[in-house]
Design brief:
Layout (H helix, E strand, L loop, with lengths): L1 H15 L6 E5 L4 H12 L3 E6 L15 H12 L5 E5 L5 H15 L4 E4 L14 H29 L3 E6 L12 H20 L5 E8 L9 H10 L20 H12 L10 E4 L7
Parallel strand pairs: 1-2, 1-4, 2-3, 4-5, 5-6, 6-7
Bound molecules: nicotinamide-adenine-dinucleotide.
């Protein structure tokens, strides 16, 4: 009976904030989905290590880059949740910088439980028309940068000895064809492979690894005009970008994706590892 009561009390503490006492690392945290994840994880009780490049990534990208002010706003919002945050401008392609931030975060907060590998970039062009720079940028940030993020985070999670949860931000483009951005799809399919491999490799440490596959989220990365231009030139491509059954018009909000990330980060999703979670309001069933 006493044991049961103690168990219930522990569970009660979890319910008050499912990530109470834990530490989460979020990349691409200055704005968009990354900011939503950082703030939501803090609301659940986690201290946050936040990274973002806060600068243009490549001339081949046409949308507005994140700024240092964006990252400062994330810091303000995390602190408004009553949590601590260590935020730094760094490029996920810069191995030394990523490792340094993880080490500093672990030194400051004492452990690492959650990693959300979210930093990413999107470009457009048919596969055979892409330049080396377009290819290298998207593969370098989305695939290699995520691998570097995970390579820096995993030893700290293993050392902490508390198990943990890794959420890899792939895309609908990581489970289906998306004509007009084959390099992006290649990077996001690569993340699906990394996720599934790591789910097995990290099982013995109690670390779960799942990927999310968002579709049409309202962030600066999405440029409706660029997409319309591609569809005007290649009308057949439009079939690969179906409407969402639950929200046929417009995009979903970053907060809605953060709901899923917070659930995957916490113990409520404890049976899931190596799972591809579509965050698509049904679109991928077309
Ligand atoms: N918006 C969508 O519809 C959608 C759909 C599926 C998947 N995604 C993925 O979601 C993730 C978040 O994108 P978002 O929609 O919030 O777009 P976003 O452009 O608003 O956010 C991406 C963030 O990552 C940062 N970043 C980019 N390259 C970086 C680098 N080399 N190092 C460090 N930080 C870097 C950017 O500065 C930016 O703050 C990305 O991985 C993206 O591919 C987006």
């Amino acid at each position: 009976m006493l044991a049961w009561l103690r168990h219930s009390a522990a569970k009660g503490a979890d319910v008050a904030g499912s990530l109470q006492g834990r530490v989460a690392f979020v990349t691409g945290a200055a704005r968009g989905q990354g900011r939503a994840h950082a703030v939501r994880l803090a609301a659940e009780g986690a201290d946050v290590i936040a990274l973002d490049i806060c600068a243009p990534v490549s001339d081949t990208l046409t949308y507005t880059p994140a700024t240092p002010e964006d990252l400062s706003e994330t810091v303000r919002l995390v602190e408004a949740q009553g949590r601590k945050v260590l935020a730094r401008e760094a490029d996920v392609r810069d191995d030394a910088a990523v490792r340094r931030l993880v080490a500093d975060g672990v030194e400051q907060f004492g452990r690492l439980d959650v990693a959300v590998a979210n930093a990413g970039v999107l470009g457009w062009g048919r596969v055979w028309e892409l330049t080396d720079e377009q290819w290298d940028t998207v593969i370098g940030v989305n695939l290699t940068g995520t691998w570097r993020t995970l390579r820096a985070s995993i030893p700290a999670m293993i050392d902490a000895g508390n198990g943990g949860s890794i959420v890899v931000v792939s895309s609908a483009a990581g489970v289906k064809a998306t004509p007009g951005n084959g390099h992006y799809a290649a990077s996001k399919y690569g993340l699906t492979a990394l996720t599934n491999t790591l789910a097995i490799e990290l099982g013995e440490y109690g670390i779960r690894v799942n990927s999310i596959h968002p579709y049409s989220v309202d962030t600066p990365m999405i440029e409706p005009e660029a997409m319309m231009e591609i569809f005007a030139r290649h009308p057949a491509f439009v079939h690969s970008f179906p409407p969402m059954p639950l929200q046929p018009k417009a995009f979903m909000g970053a907060d809605e994706v953060a709901d899923v990330v917070a659930w995957l980060a916490g113990d409520g999703s404890g049976t899931l590892s190596g799972t591809q979670v579509n965050v698509d309001k049904g679109a991928l069933k077309y």
